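Summary: Need help interpreting a holo structure output

Steps to reproduce:
1. Submit the protein chain below together with the SMILES for zinc ion.
2. Request a joint structure prediction with the ligand placed.
3. Inspect the structure token block that comes back.

Expected: a single structure record containing both the chain and the bound molecule.
Actual: see attached output.

Input attached:
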Amino acid sequence: MADNLCEVCPKTGDQRCSRCRQVRYCSHQCQRAAWVKHKLVCDSATEFNSQDRPTPDAAEVYYRRALLFDPEKTKPNFIWLKFKLEQVDGHFVEQPQLDAVGIDEPDIEDFMIQKHPVLDRTLPHTIRLRFRDNFLSDGSKANAPVQSLKTKHDWRGPMVAYAMKGTEGIEDLRESDDLDATDFPSIVSFLKVYGDERPLTTTRITNEDLKNMSPAERAGGIIFDSATGSFYNSAGRRL
Ligand SMILES: [Zn+2]
Ligand SMILES: [Zn+2]
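--- attached output ---
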């Protein structure tokens, strides 16, 4: 993340995770609260080295760090995702080569995340989540890395998260960007609130709600109940 904010609360984060050196926290309390989710990507983020970025084998090919939720694994893993400059509706756009990660149907779902859904914080770039559109009916295997986040939805098949520079409308997002562990909390929160009928960018909790939340709640313990249309904290209190 381009700024120096705590991953869990609105304060400045002067302490970094000592292993991956990517995510920031204001206090041990916030770090402890975040660890239950951060531990899923910290090892992969630590082992994943920018110096290992593949050399493009052709002009207008790029490799970017992305996060793959592979149904054959138990945790998400960072990968190098290949992008190619392609013409789309008269514009040149760096397009991810999704068939290489098993997202191989004609219909591919595409979600954009531009704000942290709980902290209501604008992200430094746009995160895109891509997966098979028909994963419930095409025989796709349950996605254990996603379902382990205790999402309500029955996610199946491979899912990849990658980043595009900028936070404008989709047609202005043309350049790919590296994703890192600081993007993970927004992805987790998104998957937890998925099913809400409101567009993500308007899904928000008020500042008053935020003040009353514990760090654990802000770190992703928030549950959205689509039946009642409300957010609940981990103790079942309506927000
Ligand atoms: Zn904090
Ligand atoms: Zn870490």
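--- end attachment ---

Reviewer comment: Helices lie at 28-47, 144-147, 184-193, 207-211, 215-221. Residues 209-238 form one domain.
Status: needs-info
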